[in-house]
Design brief:
10 strands, 8-stranded parallel β-sheet, two-stranded antiparallel ribbon, binds zinc ion, 9 helices, binds N-[3-({4-[(3-aminopropyl)amino]butyl}amino)propyl]acetamide
Amino acid sequence: MKPEVLYPFAYDYHNPQFEIENGYQEQYWDTPERVAIILAEIEKFGHTKMARSEQQPESDLLRVHTKDYVQFIKRFSQQSESLQYPSVFPRAIDITGKPDYALLGYYSLDLGAPIGPDTYLAAKNSADVVISAANRILDGQRVVYALCRPPGHHAEKDKMGGYCYFNNAAIAADILSEHGTVAILDLDVHHGNGTQRIFYKRADVLTVSIHAHPKDAYPGFSGFENEMGEGNGIGFNLNIPLPKESTGNEEYDIALNLALRNIEKFSPNFLVVSLGLDTYIKDPMQLFKLTTEYYKVAASQIARLKKPTLIVQEGGYFLDDLGINVASFLNGFQSNTAVIS
Ligand code: SP5
Ligand code: ZN
């Protein structure tokens, strides 16, 4: 079955020029072009249906984010004339009545998710895509690709960071979880700290992530093997960190198979894939060495689970090949989903 494709209502905005990494200005890799490039490439492959997503109720954001966080991004975004970066990071304080100067840092993990005039709209449009996609899955569509941008998996319930504001995959998983169990497979090269944390105490949503070992890659503070869930959620979080230097197709494939075996054992009703193409050999993140051809192989193995699957776009920054890498992954899904149990 060919994946149905949903993309944002509008996407030519929210274009920060830099993030700050280790004290230095670094290029901001998440650009509006990414959406256009992916769309242009996958259009060539004739997917079942490609559509702009519809607007969705703001209340769906509150499934995984606090009201004060969503309201802050909305208000602060609308009143900002230029991109705003935090200066202080207050922790464990009562934030009632504190000025925006303090709040911006309170709601931030890092200096990689600034807020400008169109940030809320871009993040909301991105979440709308995944909400519409989850609804398509509930309507009976077997494979849906949500072309989300900005990405979401680093966003926690009240924290933005790593280009992420609203956790698209988590919102979708929470919607689907009202109708059955859900597994989230996070394939972005960075650990999906937000997704992990949001579901950390839940047994009805299994979170599995394959990523560059946090000891030498962003986000650094989570993604370790010993993080296995808490309370009811113990045993329902699996991290598979891989070495930064030596991970190519073969090494990755072993990890993917371990991930898939665990998902199969959990036997979810729905699968959400956080798809990052920043595992690519030419990606500027310079971590893993996966190839265009391998994305197809990976997808065909995931498709063998034969679960209704929502693929959510996360990272991937080598623009020349980003489109073909997504297309390769989506094409790998086509061959194996004909019979679904
Ligand atoms: C969604 C997502 O992929 N977010 C990633 C955020 C990463 N931010 C830190 C980037 C540091 C990149 N440094 C690259 C150095 C190699 N030249
Ligand atoms: Zn990433």
